[in-house]
Amino acid sequence: MIIREIRMEDAENLLILIKEVESTAAFLLMEPRERKTSLEQQQKQIEQINTKKNSTIFVAEKNGKLVGYLFVIGGSAKRTKHTAYLVIGILQEYRGKGIGTNLFDHATCWAKTHNISRLELTVVTANEAGVALYQKSGFDVEGTKRNSLIINDRAYDEYYMSKLL
User: Fold this and answer.
1) I want to staple 94 with a disulfide (CB 3.0 to 4.6 A). Which of 67, 78, 115, 154 is the partner?
2) Are strands 65-74 and 118-124 parallel, antiparallel or unpaired?
3) Terminal CA-to-CA distance of the chain, rounded, Å?
4) Using CA atoms, how far apart are residues 55 and 22, in angstroms rounded to an integer?
């Protein structure tokens, strides 16, 4: 397993990976087939992230195939440049194998060298595996965003979680 930062030539495979993760994960923001991102839009997003000193994308690669990602999206205002919002996704068959922990470890090390002192994310409270991963990676619950998402006609709460570096 290799964890590395994204490269422009990964754009198409990243887009495929994101759509596949969204098709099998019950608690992500986007529903299956809802994302309409084009290859050109994905390339532009990678390009924009690569120009920011406080943002990056990590990918997990196994046998030449992308199997996971972790977006680190740095704050854009002067007062939030020390923060980064995280979004993670791992192919279903690779979940529970340490890839998420590995991605978070890389992001934490990277953040410390890029003047980021706060990592944050949200997670559906019913996503027990996700909550456990984030807590294992040093994140604490800061609050609850009530009725944050409607999934299959049911309201779900989300936790706001953060990790101070």
Assistant:
1) 67
2) unpaired
3) 26
4) 22
Element (H, E) at 56: strand 56-62
In a domain, 160, yes or no: no
* Residue pair 57/107 in contact by the 8 Å Cβ criterion: no
**Structural domain containing residue 57:** 2-121
DSSP states of 7-47: -GGGHHHHHHHHHHHHHH-TTSSSPTTT----HHHHHHHHH
Cα dist from 9 to 27, 39, 46, 84, 151, whole Å: 29, 11, 10, 24, 34
Distance CA 114, CA 108 (A): 10
Number of domains within the chain: 1
For residues 134 and 123, give the distance between their C-alpha atoms in angstroms, rounded to a whole number: 9
Is residue 62 in some structural domain? Answer: yes
Describe the crossing of helices 99-112 and 128-136 by its angle, rounded to 10 degrees: 40
Residue type, 161: M
pLDDT per residue over 119-164, tens digit each?
Answer: 999 999 999 999 999 999 999 999 999 999 999 999 999 999 999 9
Q: What is the pTM of this model?
A: 0.94
Tell me the CATH number at 18.
Answer: 3.40.630.30
